[in-house]
Amino acid sequence: MQINSEEKDMLNGKFGKAIKKSMEIITTLGEIYGAKRLVKVSSVQVAGVSYENLGEAGLEFLDEMAADGRVRVLTTLNPAGMDLENWKYLGIDSEFAKNQIRVIEAFEKMGIISTCTCTPYFIGNIPRFGEHIAWSESSAVCYANSILGARTNREGGPSALAAALTGKTAEYGLHLDKHRIPELTVVVETKISKTYEFGALGKSIGDEVGGKIVYIKGIDDASIEELKSFCASIATYGGTPMFYMEGISPESKIIKIPKEKIKITKENIEKSINELNDESEVDFISIGCPHCSIKEIAKIADLLKGKKVNKELWITVARPIKEIADRMGYSKIIKSSGAKLACDTCCVVAPIKGRFKTLCTDSAKGCYYARGKNKFNTRLNSIEKCIEEALN
Amino acid sequence: MKLQGRRIYKGKALGKPIITNQNISFYGGVDPDTGVITEKGHELEGKSVAKKILAFPTGKGSTVGSYVLYRLKKNDKAPAAILNEKCDPIVAVGCIISEIPCIDGIDIKKISKDTFLEIDGDNATIKMKKAN
Fold it and tell me: Which of B8, B67, B87 sits opposite A58 (nearest CB)?
């Protein structure tokens, strides 16, 4: 791999320890994957924020990097384990809160903007078509590659941080045209609507094809909310970093459609929904995985207006979206109903293992982590039905 | 006997090998405080990787695994070195941030368990000696 003199200086420690470590990460990954050079990135999304996953050692690593590392490009942050301003009402203990705040402080010291959202594309980190970026957070990676046409591999927390501190990533994988070619066509033979059905579609495809890049036909229309749900789900169940959706993905018009085909039928979608629906009584409802758009918040406020919830209901959102919801009176309606409108976190990364028995959500991704990580039963349903369940 | 691989991360190590033909997920599969493999049904389940030369085909699982290697190192329970057939990004990044010597491109079947290994990460070589 060829690196230029500035990159060599970074690797040799001229710009400090954090930059040296970062360059070691980037060049090693480049060598493993046969990159010929490094490319500039215009933005970074860093995951690995919840203290639950990082632990004391992870925090120590971040503190070491923060000693002399500063970001060179726009860098935003994934959700944390709690609402940073309002954690008590989510039932988070003060010991966890203290440690979570130390994590955020280390990131902020490096110049990372503590957006704490999995939907950076809603709040100002939105790359243009063709731009090289280095994002972690699998749902946002899929959204950036497939819906925006930007270029990123599925970075882990440390490799995304390395890109932020150097402004570079190694040119391999999805940064190159030759690795963005779909291998298989998926024909969706049934009408898909609402976020939960798009989530079920993501699971059906992900379970069937794994990490392959697919070309999807048969989706006439999809809102950005439906697409974010689909991206989260296909990335979770299949591990794919991108897909093409005919007429929706910017590159879908210029790519050669693969001859090999599989079908997704109504039965496939029903099977996915059934697999995520346990027979057990719901005691926790969460909407906002990935974080809600303002359109979703408006809709939820409308459904909750003048009513009272009887179960724990979390609606999770990026803080700037909540600011608009505050102005519009949506937050007041949601709060008056007894539901919790939480920023900076979500039901996937908050430390809630053992607190609830059954989660009802419109997110297929949310179901996956509720089961695997938190040992909950799950129900997958539309936002309307989720709210109905909370009011019941 | 000497094996030649590819350098993932530099450094030297000496130790006894712990070998598996199954892949390892550090996140959820290895206890970060003890170094014991906890994955249900894994052939190394219940065994500790601490201070040993850990040889396995490749890594799997969540990218949080890199931080688990770092936690092991800080807890003094990390492997002395890692040998892979094909190193995946989670293990590679974990070794770099934790400064664990790592070599890939190794046919791990050629490493016998009754040996003592001398790892030279800088030159990506492995010397096998009979265990005393």
Answer: B67
Tens digits of residue pLDDT in A32-65:
889 999 999 999 999 999 998 888 889 999 999 9
Residue B63 has pLDDT above 80, yes or no: no
Residue B33 belongs to a domain with what CATH number? 3.50.30.10
CA distances from B116 to A231, A345, B11, B82, B119 (A): 48, 48, 17, 14, 10
- A197-247 pLDDT, tens digit per residue, is 999 999 999 999 988 999 999 999 999 999 999 999 999 998 899 999 999
Residue-level pLDDT at B132: 65
Share of chain A above pLDDT 70, in %: 100
Tokens describing residue A252? 């879908």
The answer on pLDDT for A93 being more than 80 is: yes
Q: Quick one: DSSP state of residue A145? A: I
| A residues 41-70 lying closer than 8 A (beta carbon) to B | 47-48, 53-58, 60-61
Task: Give A249-277 pLDDT, tens digit per residue.
Answer: 999 999 999 999 999 999 999 999 999 99
Q: Which residue of A has its CA nearest to B98?
A: A61
Contact across the interface for B63 and A156, Cβ inside 8 Å: yes
- Residue A148 DSSP code: I
Cβ-based contacts of B87 with chain A (< 8 Å)? 32
Q: Taking CB atoms and an 8 Å limit, are A55 and B67 in contact across chains?
A: yes
- Closest Cα in chain B to A65: B97
- Domain end position, chosen among A157, A177, A197: A177
**Residues 6 or more apart in contact with residue A329 via CB below 8 angstroms:** A301
* Residue A153 near residue A172 (C-beta atoms within 8 A): yes
In degrees and rounded to multiples of 5, residue A377 shows phi and psi of -80, 165
Residue A298 C-beta-side C-alpha neighbours within 13 Å: 7
Q: Closest approach of chain A CAs to the CA of B62, in angstroms?
A: 9
Residue after which a domain boundary falls, among A177, A211, A244: A177
- Calpha distance A81→A101 (Å, rounded): 10
Q: A194: phi > 0 → left, psi -120 to 50 → alpha, else beta; which?
A: left
Same domain for A165 and A24?
yes
Residue A279 has a pLDDT of 93
Q: Does A157 touch chain B (CB under 8 A)?
A: yes
* A61: closest CA of chain B, how far (Å): 8
> Which of A24, A48, A56 comes nearest B64 by C-beta?
A48
End-to-end CA, chain B: 16
Q: Which domain holds residue B110?
A: 2-130
Q: Residue A349 sits in which domain range?
A: 284-391
**Any CB–CB contact under 8 A between A243 and chain B?**
no
CB B96 to CB A25 under 8 A? yes
Is the CB of B93 less than 8 angstroms away from the CB of A60? no
Q: A158–B93: do the CB atoms touch at under 8 Å? A: yes
A232 shares a domain with A114: no
Whole-structure pTM value:
0.92
